[in-house]
Structures are given as structure tokens and as C-alpha cells.
Amino acid sequence: MALIQGLLTGELNDSARLGIHLGNCLECLACEPVCPSLVRFGALMDGVRAQRVAQLPPWHRLWLRLPLDLLAHPRMPALLTLVTAIYRRTGLAAALRRLGMLSRGRLAVLDGLADQLRRPRRSHPKAPPAALAGHAGMPAVGHETALERDASSTGGVGLFLGCISRGLQASTAQAALLVLEHLGIPVQVPSRQGCCGAMHRHNGHPDSADRLLVQNREAFLSNRVVGFASACVAELQQGLDAREICRFLIDTAWPEQLKLRPLPALVAVHEPCSHRNLLRDTQAVYALLARIPELRAVGLDGNDRCCGAAGTYLLDHPETALSLAADKVRSITKLDVRYLVTTNTGCAAHLAARLRAAGSQIEVLHPVELIARQLAEKPNA
After folding, report:
1. What is the mean pLDDT of residues 312-328?
2. How far is 96 from 30, CA to CA, in rounded Å?
3. CA–CA gap between residue 284 and residue 282 (Å, rounded)
4. In a domain, 281, yes or no
5. Staple 242 to which of 127, 167, 225, 238, CB 3.0 to 4.6 Å?
6. Is 89 within 8 Å of 180 (Cβ atoms)?
7. Coil, helix or strand for 40?
8. Is the pTM of this model over 0.85?
9. By residue range, what is the domain housing residue 352?
10. 273, 306 in Cβ contact below 8 A?
């Protein structure tokens, strides 16, 4: 905050060194809930980053925004899946590993993310394999359940898919649709929805973020929006009636005949910064998991600290991201757990990759995936 104040008052000149210090901030916002003055530090950091970007030449601004636009494109998950397949099948991944180039830095991060893109999961015994974006397991954009064609007029919801989430959390979208269907809630997946815009906003491009927010507002119309990625939900709440799915499911009346099968297991709960410090409602996760008989949920030691994913931070500052994730892995592996649950797409991919690199078989899931797996037969209408 002192650096930001110095820059805005002219006491400090903008420089590459100052940019490094500002860029090192994860924007985890752990400072906000404990600030006695209620300072909105996230808005300050977003603002100063936007100001610095706005002062750059047009070509430079375009160059910085280009990778964000590509990541936000709806076809990017399918493209990344193809690139990942080529990366594996050509032997490039094996060659880099033999050379010891995948043990640290950006290549270690990218290799871990690539590993998550190629690992489809089955969310429910009767669901098709939750394959990657563009395959059978991912709900098609424009999908409507058979329950109702106009969800907005019947108290239904619109399901937000996000951008990278379509590739990294296809199984979560599948699980969300399945659970909502069992609850008898009409669901739409609008075809015009897009990226939430958080990546753009936190990297100094608020105009692009606002345009994406408008696009999503027009796509969902009057529907209540339900999202499974906590960071996306936090961004969407700036302009839409958006709710995180764990909270939505807790606040929804469940049919008496809807039962969940017991799961005698200990589950570790990772509380992402986006859920803990932005939505500030991590108790919804524990309350939802408590619906599963015999399941025991325990908060992860160090939940007040960031895992290092932090949007695009893990790509921009890979060494710090890997170091922070290593702390999480140590905390997780101390517990005798079968599952780790988290509500943030980037955190899930980052932690799953680091757990696999450490030789752990702990499965990383979204809470709604565990609910979907434990669903009994669908109750009669």
C-alpha cells in the first residue's frame, strides 16, 4: 500500500523494480478480512495495475492482453488438450523429464497442468466419463435439461462453465448438472456465456473484464447463476446474481426421498483464497459435505495461506507458486486422507499436479463431485 501511495502521489517514479514488487503480490486478499480499517486492498491493487498498463503504448497493452484473451477463448480448452496430447505422444515430455527440466520453474508448472488436462474423471457411476472440453462428458454449451426449457421462468438456474474450467473441471460441470437434476432444478447452460473476466481485471485490463461481465449478463438474462469455481463466482457477483454451488445446494430444499450413500472416509478441505477471502463462506463446503453419511471433513492446516495458483500467478511466478504448493503438499500428506476437496479451478489443478509429482495418490475433487458420486437412485417424480 505504501508503494501504491508513493506512485499515485508522485513520490515514487514508476519503474521495472516497482513493477516487480507490485507483481509479486498474489492478491490472495488475506489482508482484507483482518484489516481493522476495512481497506479494500484488492481494488487498490487492481486499480494501480490498470493505471500502469494504461500508460503503456497501445501495442504493448495489446501484447499483454493477448495471452489473456487466448486463455479466455471458449475453444482454448480443446486446443490445450490437443497440444497436451502432442506433448505426451511425441515423447517431448519424457525427454524433458530425463533431462531434469521438469523439476522446477515454469516447465514444472506447465507439465503439471498438462497432466491434469489429460486425466478425465468419472463423477458418478452412471455418468459417462467426464472427458475434456469438446468431448462427451462435458455438457454442451447451450445444453438444457429435459426438466424445463425456460429455467428463468420456473426458478431454475444457469450453470456457469468458465473458460479454463471447461478443460480442467469438466467432471465438476458434469457432477453439478447431475446433482441439480436430482434436486429437480431446471438448468440452462447458455451458449453465449464466456470467461468471467477475473484474469483480465487482476492483470490490469478492467475494460476487457467489464466487457466479459456484460457478455455474461446478456447470456444469462434473468437466470440466477450458479458456478462451481469460487474465483469466477466472486468476479461474476460484480454484475450478476451469482452464487457458489455449495452455498446454493445448502440453501436449497432437498427432496426427503433423496439419499446419499455413506462414505466412511476422511476428507481434507482446502479453502481457496477466493472462497475464504472474497466470498467468505467456506462453511458452506463443510455443511454440504456433512450431508454425506460417515464422511469426516477436516480443514487443511495452513488454509489461511495461498497455495500459489492465484489465477495466472503460477505462470508468472512459478518458483514462488511451487514453493507455496510444497507447503500445502506437506500438510496434506500428513493426513491419512483419500480425498482433497477445493472449490477453485486453478488451486485444484495446481495441487493435484504437485501431489502427483510427490508420488501421492490422493484424489483432488470439487465437493459437488463427492455429492454426485454418493447419489442414490434418482427419486421418482
Report:
1. 93
2. 37
3. 5
4. yes
5. 225
6. no
7. coil
8. yes
9. 266-373
10. yes
